Amino acid sequence: MAKTTVKLDQELIDSLTEQLRHNRPIRRVLGSDGVLNIDRQLPFLFVYRPPPGEANSVFSTILTGGASYLLAPADPKTRAWTKRLVAEIAEQLSAVFGSFLIIELWPAQEVEVNEKSPAAVQPAFSVRHDQTDGTSAALERLVSSLERIVVMKQKARVERVSLANVGRPGMARLLSPKTEDDLNVTLLGVEVSPIYLDPETGDVLPLVGRALARLTARSLQRAAFEFARAETNDRSMHYHALGRRTFVAAAKRVDGQLAAVAESFDLLLAVTPTNSDAALRAFRRSKFLRAPRFHYRPTTVDPDLLKRRLWNIKIEQVEDPVLDQLFREKRRELDLKLTLLADRERHRFLHTSMALYGRVRADLLASANSILDEVEPPDSSPTGQRTVTAGAFIARAQAELDRMSNTGEMGGRIIVQDDVSSLMVSSGNLIVGANMSFPSNRVEPLIQHEVGTHVLTYWNGRAQPFKLLATGLAGHDELQEGLAVFVEYLVGGLTGPRLRTLAARVVAVCALVDGATFVETFRLLRHDYGFSERMAFLVTMRVFRGGGLTKDAVYLRGLESVMSYLAKGGRLDTLFVGKIATEHASVVEELQRRQVLEPPPFRPSYLDQPDSHYRIERIRENAKPADLVDV
User: Fold this and answer.
1) Can you tell me the distance from the alpha carbon of 330 to that of 476, in angstroms, rounded to the nearest whole number?
2) What is the spatial distance between Cα 73 and Cα 324, in angstroms, rounded to a whole number?
3) Segments of 25-132 assigned E as strands
4) Which pLDDT tens digit goes with each residue over 323-334?
5) Domain regions of the chain by residue span
6) pLDDT at 3
7) CATH code at 10-246
8) Reduced to 3 DSSP states, what percent helix, strand and coil does the chain have, rounded to the nearest 5?
9) What DSSP designation does 430 have?
């Protein structure tokens, strides 16, 4: 079928301005290479007018970081039409907001060189403005934001230039001075040093270009917000609120493709031994001298084929820079997880695990040792300790699932398996071993750890437009486990033995990385730190499973991360929107301000308990993990 080219005439302009008048989103291809995207009525427009042959992907990325932009057709014959289009957009939106901001961008002819280090390429911007706009709030914010840009460890240099024509050199001014005055339009120009081009070949340097585009787009957004706040009747409380709310189909497609890969395998289940009880009995028979052999479930997917699917996903088609970054991070994480799956029980498994979950930092090991020193080990022969059967535990967990289902569509269920020796959550379902038993004082904390955190965040994520919030953004394991442990504290169930176990996992991971054997690590926990045979075995098994899984260090690290986040004034509610990492909290809040994310349907019941508020406030007073016991 032949491609239909829309005629660039006054009829099209009238159609587009009619959509604006009714506050309908506009996404229109203009000619063969132009695009107009206006998310909704907004008091600004970012413009890039390339000449023929200047196909600049970096500037396209800068533009698409905003909710209102015009990538003009390159054909010189369309320039007069482009000017008419911009004038009518400005007229429509200035009438709505009382004034209007246009920022035009273009590349400089030469790259700026850092005089102190000639080999280093320095980001540089020339901001053009009329004399009458020399002190505007938008200009001041634009300059200050651009000055904070750092690319490849080089801080940007920004100059301000007052000119009669603030637009792109060699092209007519977008609006005449009279039209600007009549419509109360502020026009700014930004010339960008093309540091994203290889100086010898002229090829785009993709990583440099991506970083420059993301940071420049954020600076434009800040300037637009300052303009809206100071010069219009818009009362948005944060510059994120002026961001994109609608997305190209590629964003949904990429999200779905990444989520499909993530949901096609369960790494944790694949590296969990199916014979832990038998392995412990064999280890005892050897008088703890021979490392046990662990059995695992057969791998049901081909990691290589999944990797092919993964790297065929066209993330570069996603226009929004925030989502672009999230998707790229997730792809790298999934690649590492698939490598782990392929290398299960091989020597290189440990090295990939360290790449995925990191090493044990010195400060984390010191914190773990501090807990083991400060928190007394439990009585080795407790009397009268009540236990709860798997059946009773399942009944209580089901009651919590039922309570959550009353507030929304909760699809989580409980799966009982004979070959599981610990609790786990997979795809929003709770998996319980048929032969498990639980200390009675640990039932509620475990319910809230697994159901009130892991299950809840999965289904909250499923309620969002982006599926990755259910399967998990990159690095979510640390926050998920740390948050779940923190929840145990909130319900008054973070016991000394439990905290010591988390510290032991850090010590065991450190021993593994330093070259200790299974037997040596078991002895370290059993004899040096006073753990029972069973607990020392379980901790060692978890750390050595698959070939050496360093994930267990994230529990204590995640707990400290949550505590630090709260101490800095972070909102706990934000962490329950889906499966995210701590560093994504600000991204989640941005997407909420942009009305991209929906309010989460499920809220943990314990957050509404008065005692929880007291415990949260106490954390803001520079508490350390050992302080959370018996509060």
Assistant:
1) 10
2) 25
3) 26-30, 34-38, 44-48, 68-71, 100-107, 124-129
4) 888 999 999 999
5) 10-246, 347-383+441-628
6) 46
7) 3.40.630
8) 55, 10, 35
9) E
DSSP string, 434-486: TT-EEEGGGHHHHHHHIIIIIIHHHHHHHTSS-THHHH--TTHHHHHHHHHHH
Contacts by 512-518, CB closer than 8 A, 24 or more apart: 512/350, 512/543, 512/544, 512/548, 512/550, 513/350, 513/354, 513/359, 513/360, 513/548, 513/550, 517/291, 518/291, 518/292, 518/544
Q: What is the token pair recorded at 537?
A: 């075995």
Which residue has tokens 């400290």? Answer: 560
Residue 9 CB: number of other CB atoms within 10 A? 11
What's the mean pLDDT in 263-278?
Answer: 93
Question: Tens digit of pLDDT for each residue in 89-137?
Answer: 999 999 999 999 999 999 998 765 555 554 457 899 999 998 776 568 8
Q: Could you tell me how many helices (H) and strands (E) the chain has, helices first?
A: 24, 15
Burial of 256 (0-12, 13-18, 19+ CB in 10 A): middle
Task: Provide the token pair at 68.
Answer: 């209102």
What distances in angstroms separate CA 541 from CA 115, 277, 339, 421, one per listed residue?
57, 11, 21, 12
pTM of the model: 0.82
418 torsion bin: left (phi>0), alpha (psi -120 to 50), beta (else): alpha
Q: Kindly write down the DSSP assignment for every residue of 105-167, as one continuous string.
A: EEE-SS--B-SS-TTSBPPEEEEEE-GGGTT-HHHHHHHHHHHT-EETTEE-EEEEEE-S--S
Answer whether residue 229 shows pLDDT above 50. Answer: yes
For β-strands 185-192 and 100-107, DSSP reports them as parallel
Q: How far apart are CA 352 and CA 337, in angstroms?
A: 8
